[in-house]
């Protein structure tokens, strides 16, 4: 059973996770929860342990101590593919797409991948009208319908990140973990990504956002958790986090008061 000290309506509960690498404690009893339908941001300075914590949530790393609960079920020992099937899906910081395929074909393969059996039959995929219809719906959701026939490798960086978001959405996530979706983007691309994430937020998709762009974080997040030296030192609304003296000292600096 999930720990009683965390809210019962939480979709994801991260409970006192510890991960050690020799003498280094990368996550130190880190705890926070993500409520169904909210956009929750995880922020912290470089070296705070965010990547290690996200690896544990997604299933890439096993914690040494603590637990993870998804929709009330203990998923601490589940491998990443099982977590994806349960609806806990991660979009990575580094874009991973089929660069020689069209944008639409990338989405078709992602749609087919969530079905039983391995998608090793390109001829069958080409004939699967339902998969194409589903993929076209994903393209519309991420604002890429006009790019359906473009080769994915020819897309700009921001467009590739949009496509990767569509690939993650094709897995039908109940919670989507976004690892620095604005990484490497210019101001215009970042603004477009913020609008796209705002549209997903409006559809009540649960998002866990790891991001260094504080403007984006405070535009999008319902709640924010701050990780410093492997510990979550504060969780609250953006205004509450801005006003927290410990957060300002550890991370946000003078900008938190502006």
From TrEMBL:
Xref: InterPro entries: AAA+_ATPase (IPR003593), ABC_AA/LPS_Transport (IPR051120), ABC_transporter-like_ATP-bd (IPR003439), BCA_ABC_TP_C (IPR032823), P-loop_NTPase (IPR027417)
Domain of life: Bacteria
UniProtKB keywords: ATP-binding, Cell membrane, Membrane, Nucleotide-binding, Transport
GO cellular component: a single term: plasma membrane
Residue ranges of every copy of the ABC transporter domain listed in the record: 12-254
GO molecular function: ATP binding; ATP hydrolysis activity
Pfam families according to UniProt: ABC_tran, BCA_ABC_TP_C
CDD domains linked: ABC_Mj1267_LivG_branched
Name under which the protein is recorded: ABC transporter ATP-binding protein
